[in-house]
Amino acid sequence: MNSGTVSNLVTTGVGSEAAPVEVDEPSSKRLRPATSDVWNFFKKLGPDKDGVERAECKGCKKVFKAGGKRYGTSTIKRHLDSCTQIKHEDIGQTIAELQLKMGSLKIDSGVARDMFAGYVVAGDKPFNMVDDRRFRNLVKYISPTLKLPSRNTVKADIVKVHKTEAAKLKKNLVSIPNRICLTSDLWTSSTNEGFICLTAHFVDENWKLQSKILNFCHMPPPHTGFELSSKIFTLLTE
């Protein structure tokens, strides 16, 4: 008898002569529940005609082969990084809430760094805020195991976020079935430095007006029509 077999001892024979006989009953296979956090962002569709499990992204509604020993969740995990309909902050927050409900909050340093980079960008915070002693003491009190990044690491993380978001925006612009309107805005800072902001305006597939900044960079004089057109052409080429 092995651990996976339920065995019953049955006594057979006549009189006092009896012999134990093993009767094996097939064990019922239990389906393992989907424990990966990635399933918070995907809907299981069940097996397709080829018998392979399918999963649909709750953000962009794309369908992927997922589940089972052959495909697992690696493909849909990679999709989360490039999905334009799901924000990374939402991923980190959902994982944190799920772990809190389970009673054991495990801090993922990678997710924490991405969320902190998003906070610095959205709040226009300085990079050296991580060097503030009171801020570090607060974080240490909340989570003694969480290691705060340095200001250089925060800068590198923000550059990484910019590249990821730029790639998503390029992918979005390619899928637009209509035209794109461009506007440029020139302004001069208090130090007499010129800057240009190039913005794209378009109607998305849900008929909502979108405005996305394509580039914001230094624009030295002269600000003539020829120089402006050359600069905008260069930015669009990039």
Automatic annotation (TrEMBL):
Q: What is its main location?
A: nucleus
Q: In what residue span(s) does the BED-type domain sit?
A: 33-95
Q: Name one GO biological process term.
A: post-embryonic development
One GO cellular component term of this record is: nucleus
Keyword Nucleus among record annotations: yes
Q: Please name one Pfam family that this protein belongs to.
A: zf-BED
Which keywords describe this protein according to UniProt? Answer: Metal-binding, Nucleus, Transcription, Transcription regulation, Zinc, Zinc-finger
Asked if the Swiss-Prot or TrEMBL record annotates the protein with the keyword Nucleotidyltransferase, the reply is: no
Molecular function, one GO term: DNA binding
Q: Write out the annotated subcellular location.
A: Nucleus
Q: What is this protein called?
A: BED-type domain-containing protein
Organism equals Arachis hypogaea (Peanut)
Upper taxonomic lineage = Eukaryota, Viridiplantae, Streptophyta, Embryophyta, Tracheophyta
